[in-house]
Amino acid sequence: MPKKWDGWIAYQIKTNIVKDTTLNENDKKPKTESHDNGFTLNIRNLSNGEVKKFPFVTDYVLAKEAKSIAFVSTGDDEDFKPGVYFYDLKTQHTTKILIAKGTYKQLTLNDSGTKIAFLADTVKRKTKELDLYYWNREDTVKKVVNNENVNLKEGWTLSENGEITFSKKTNRIFFGTAPIKPDKDTTILDEEIPQLDIWHWNEPILHSQQLNTKADDFKKSYLAVYHIDENKMVQLENESFSGIKSIENGDADLLLAWSNLPYAVQTMWEGDPEHNDFYLVNVFTGETQLIKKDCRSIPDFSPEGKYIFWYNPVDTSWNTFNIKELKEYKITDPALLQCADELNDIPNLPGEYGTAGWLKNDDALLVYDRFDIWKVNPEKNTKPVNITLNGRKNKIVYRLMDFENANRYLTGDPVEGIDPTKILYIKGHNEITREEGYYKSSLINKKTPIELMAGKFALNRPLKAKNADVFVFTKESFEEFPDVLISENDFKKNRKISDVNPQQKNFLWGTKELYSWISLDGKKLDGLLIKPANFDPNKKYPMIVNFYERASQHIFDHQIPEAHRSTIDYHYYSSNGYVIFNPDIYYKEGYPGESAFNCVMPGITKLISEGFIDKDHIAAQGHSWGGYQVAYLATRTNLFAAIESGAPVVNMYSAYGGIRLWTGRNRSFQYEHTQSRIGKSIWESPLRYLENSPIFTADKIETPMLIMHNEDDGAVPFSQGIEFFIALRRMGKQAWLLNYNEADHWPTKIHDKYDFQIRMAQFFDHYLKDAPMPLWMQEGIPAINKEFEMGYEIKN
Description:
Layout: E1 8-13, E2 39-45, E3 51-62, E4 68-73, E5 83-88, E6 93-99, E7 103-109, E8 115-121, E9 131-136, E10 142-145, E11 156-158, E12 165-166, E13 172-179, H1 207-212, H2 214-218, E14 222-227, E15 232-235, E16 243-246, E17 254-259, H3 267-270, E18 276-282, E19 288-295, E20 300-301, E21 307-312, E22 317-322, E23 327-330, E24 355-358, E25 365-368, E26 373-376, E27 385-386, H4 391-394, E28 396-400, H5 403-411, E29 424-430, E30 436-441, E31 450-455, E32 458-459, E33 463-464, E34 471-476, E35 484-487, E36 494-496, E37 511-518, E38 524-531, E39 541-546, H6 570-575, E40 579-583, H7 592-610, E41 613-623, H8 625-636, E42 642-646, H9 652-656, E43 659-660, E44 665-666, H10 668-673, H11 686-691, E45 705-708, H12 718-730, E46 735-738, H13 750-769, H14 775-778
Parallel strand pairs: 39-40, 39-41, 41-42, 42-45, 45-46
Antiparallel strand pairs: 1-2, 2-3, 3-4, 4-5, 5-6, 7-8, 8-9, 9-10, 11-13, 12-13, 13-14, 14-15, 16-17, 17-18, 18-19, 20-21, 21-22, 22-23, 24-25, 25-26, 26-27, 28-29, 29-30, 30-31, 32-34, 33-34, 34-35, 35-36, 37-38, 38-40, 43-44
């Protein structure tokens, strides 16, 4: 689909070829469509229905602003020759750009449809060598860069994996290069080559990560530029860079690059944010200039390209760098404006609340604190200005809705500065009531935001028509499905234009409310309480405690009944007479297990005192980090009648040195600096690892445990689930282990998810509602019968 013009669409479908039964064995078979040969390109005129067809097209691109298209065809072996073509939809004229058999990659058409660039190999030789070609409407196609170019590094080649782009205003083509990959030595037999990985203690990237990213690394390319007017190629990116960005859509004389390489080893245990050195790269010479050393951030640049900016988590400040003056500024001070996460409870540097964007001409940067939006001068010539005024006072989190840049993102256009003369539309979230609303404000008039609509519901970020004040958005609550609404008058009068879930009215739908209590260490806490439909406070209900970290801010989120991969379905259980409690957890560094205990248990105690919870029929359920916490609770209390613990880390010692199979990263950073919140290494604080590992106090567990852990888990080692089950089995504790053979961290195949939900429901129904125990719980399923028996049935 074209992004900025209409009237035509381009598409490919496989043509149904009727087999010619008159052909003999020796007759030449007709060319057929395939991935290598290409498929028919159809260009349909939507006004008259006419379709222009081009055969065996392997690649095509539409100009963003002009009604034109470029494509590559392998030819039809008759009158349509293989090569690159340009087609003008208005004149219906086809231009032959390069006619030759060969390999074509990275076909690119500039926005106005006047320039084409691509890589091609049209010469028969032993190894494939791609050349860069350039065409414009005023000239014939030219080969502009090849492997003999004097500025191409020795042993390097043009990369078929490097994206080609044009600069907006200047005559530059950006493309990729890469080291030439060594050829396999065909004189050595495969069976003579040892299958071996060699890990080196001081290689920058852990070897398991290298194995994980090997396929991507093999395709990695490095940015280069061809200056059309000077007929000159310049290599811009080198192998030490972690990333590089062009400034001002490639029109600036400098590029921004950064490198983690000097600090890569320590990233293994530190995790994020990574240390980086910042560089400016000269687009004409490729020379680099170090402008910032060892900053734990990734830099970005302002829309007009005047400044580089970044957040420094070490001192929680926003910073800028004037590119022209080569001068750095610290533009926020935490004493006046706290931009760091105030609720950070992991043993790591706090993250930032983010930015709302730059004003036009790079005049100011809009940054967030916990509640408000602030206008900050990029050179700290004036003090930061709070433009929303009352967010912190009213506990409303204000966040800008930048519709213009959202539309630019959809069309692939670069971000632009915000016009300070236009109305600012803002979304607000009340941290106390959890209600959400839309507001409008102004950078010119210093007034509090005007409420357009707000209430006991959750709102999405709307879409806005480009040239009209028409908004499309969704509004939802636990009871209300997020249907699509349209508004044409600042959200005062809204019209529903979808009805996606009408069947909901046929089901018993429970309620969700906030519930508050005091933790064992004196902190006021909130959580979610889900009650069955037709709730009777005089009855006694079984309850399942399900949690991860904090969920109460999402009280108005709509949840659709489904067979979840790792958690209970709130609607299934509430409609079957269960109460569900989801408590918020706040953590103390070094004591994650105890923190969960201190938050969860008094909440349960208070609920029992309300009189409607059956204290003898309470269960807990959690997965991954939640699975760890419920396993820990089982070692501290016998209150629970049953617990389902999914993919739990039960031995922090053995898990600390493990590898996350998803990424190849070592797990130590999780314990020292992120979610596990130990805050120190196993050598600095071995007792913390001991105290927080349920495996070492598993002898105290009396609660029946259902464990779900899968052998291909890429997040938590499967050995953790095995250790837990073996410990419980060794001590004669009631325990079951579900291992889905085709699953990762959780089941994703629908039949596995259904199975998990069925078995978990049977497990809880037995211990919380005195339902009969199914066969799989009574006797298990022998390995020789696993393909034939489900064991759901009740054995008399």
